[in-house]
Amino acid sequence: MVEPQPPVAPHPDIAPLAPLLGTWRGTGHGEYPTIASFDYLEEIHFGHIGRPFLTYRQRTRAADDNRPLHAETGYLRCPRPDRVELILAHPTGITEICEGGLIVSDGEIRFEFESTNIGLSSTAKSVTALGRSIRQSGDVIDYTLRMAAVGEPLQHHLAATLRRA
What we know:
The chain is mainly beta. It has no helices and 10 strands. It starts with 21 loop residues before the first strand and ends with a strand.
């Protein structure tokens, strides 16, 4: 059994990301040419252990009947004051590495991610590109996700608004 640890200050490299720490909940809407549109409930948790990254855990459920839809887990890194990296594993057999710009200004954090590497297991659906736009301001996170998959070009897939829990 792991003993509880006292709170630790964020590593200096991720200090600009500290406003993300905690749990966020909200709703979103998804669409794509190959599926029916859907609404979902989402929870994201950002944590840290004092190292130069944030931990990231995301779960979604269908808004109509609460069935599980998707999950992601990984890390958010800030190798330079103006750059971020998002490294994720999906239970659908996909790994995702996205990199992009970081803007921290007037109490807002903004990320613009583009995939630099997508790994696929032999049974994963074909995903060739991903992009994410994320904005955190106060107790609200808004994001959109773009995807190129199953022969379709990169296009809008998801949008959500989450509030600090």
